[in-house]
Write a structure and sequence with these properties.
With 406 residues, the chain is α+β, with helices and mostly antiparallel strands. The chain has 10 helices and 26 strands. β7 and β8 form a beta hairpin. The N terminus is likely disordered.
């Protein structure tokens, strides 16, 4: 594969786009003008090899490629209901919710700052004054109740809840769904129209007999997730909230990514992560959670450092397991892509492992939440296989096992 890039400079901002194409396509390529993929706030001499290509063709499909890669990400469908100060109810089909801490029990998620839900759940000078909201996981037998939306702050709604006038009415309609109550502890605004919200959880209703949950896959296609293991999701009065949170999240099929980074002393580190989220509310923004005690975290810097996301596929379990067992790795452990050279890694760029689709990203913010850190990253470039292939066989993790969806 050949890589090519368009690089231009103006008002102290570097703009680049990258694409990887076959030789026969390159031979027939003509000069094109198209919007760049994303802006990169750095200096040209520090860019890695993959965006230093000699080709002078812009990629007319860069944004579409990023959208295709994003759409391949599996999301478990969660629905939120919150009461407003004037006793109305706001409902929202929320993007991926990730558990952030077990002690205390907290979750984190992305939310558009201009969303009415954001105003409803964050109003109040202290936590005691903020609204309690409900989170529901939608059962597979409710597929016909789902209505897909094009709004940036909500990607679906439920027809049965459209006429609801209170949060309690929504709860009654969805009483057979796994749910919990949440209250915002804090939130951090990013540099984009998005906040990362941290909320404490309580009042879990596990519903052991609710069956599979609905998930969203390639191109807004709705399908059912794995059948929950009755033992894993069973409830008991003796369970504390941390155990209930684990049982709530366990059936969710989480996409598996290999994260790579280069430490300050030039060593390469990798992490198999299931907490990666792609912000629907802000295209090109990825985030992930890392325990503060994790070895991989020691290789990560703060704002301005680089992390590569590799989307794992069916057949990549051995790679996933490798980076569960260890963090630091050598060239002999994997096949490295020549897109990022040794010189690039010496300048802090993360290595790319061959054979995967993924993105090169820069850490924009690091947020301190409980016993985890949340890294908010901005996509700089896309690499690897055709996203169409990835859509069909993404590797997922659910109920302590690697799976794929039909």
């Amino acid at each position: 594969l050949f890589g090519y890039a368009l690089i231009s400079r103006g008002t102290n901002q570097l703009v680049c786009t990258s694409q990887f194409i076959s030789k026969d396509v390159l031979a027939g390529a003509a000069p094109l003008t198209a919007p760049p993929l994303l802006s990169v706030d750095t200096h040209e001499e520090l860019l890695p090899s993959l965006v230093k290509s000699k080709f002078d063709h812009a990629d007319p499909n860069s944004e579409a490629r990023l959208a295709a890669l994003t759409d391949s990400f599996v999301r478990t469908m969660s629905f939120v209901a919150a009461s407003t100060n004037d006793d109305k109810v706001i409902t929202l089909g929320l993007d991926t919710i990730a558990s952030c801490s077990l002690l205390p029990t907290t979750v984190s998620f992305h939310l558009k700052k201009s969303s009415p839900l954001f105003s409803a759940i964050t109003s109040g000078a202290s936590k005691s004054n903020r609204a309690v909201f409900s989170v529901f996981y939608i059962n597979a037998d409710m597929k016909d109740d789902v209505e897909i939306l094009q709004a940036n702050d909500s990607w679906f709604t439920l027809k049965s809840c459209k006429s609801a006038t209170s949060a309690s009415q929504v709860a009654q309609t969805l009483k057979k769904c796994v749910s919990f109550q949440a209250q915002v502890d804090r939130w951090e605004d990013t540099e984009h129209d998005m906040s990362v919200v941290l909320a404490s959880c309580s009042d879990f209703k596990l519903q052991p007999n609710c069956g599979p949950r609905l998930v969203m896959t390639q191109g807004l296609r709705i399908t059912q997730g794995p059948v929950p293991d009755s033992k894993s999701v069973s409830d008991h009065p003796s369970f504390e909230d941390d155990e209930k949170l684990k049982r709530t999240m366990k059936p969710n099929p989480s996409p598996i990514c290999l994260l790579t980074a280069t430490s300050a002393d030039g060593k390469m580190f990798g992490l198999t992560a299931s907490s990666v989220r792609i912000a629907k509310v802000e295209p090109g923004i990825f985030s992930f959670n890392v325990q503060k005690s994790a070895v991989f975290r020691t290789a990560l810097g703060f704002q301005g450092t680089y992390v590569n996301f590799h989307f794992l596929k069916e057949g990549d379990i051995s790679t996933a397991e490798m980076f569960v067992q260890k963090s630091e790795f050598a060239k002999s452990d994997v096949t490295l892509s020549p897109l990022v050279t040794k010189s690039d890694t010496e300048n802090g760029w993360a290595p790319i492992v061959s054979g995967f689709s993924g993105v090169v990203s820069r850490v924009d913010q690091v947020l301190d939440f409980a016993d985890h850190l949340v890294y908010v990253c901005k996509v700089l470039a896309i690499f690897g296989d055709d996203p169409e292939t990835l859509k069909k066989n993404a590797l997922l993790y659910s109920q302590s096992a690697y799976i794929t969806l039909e």
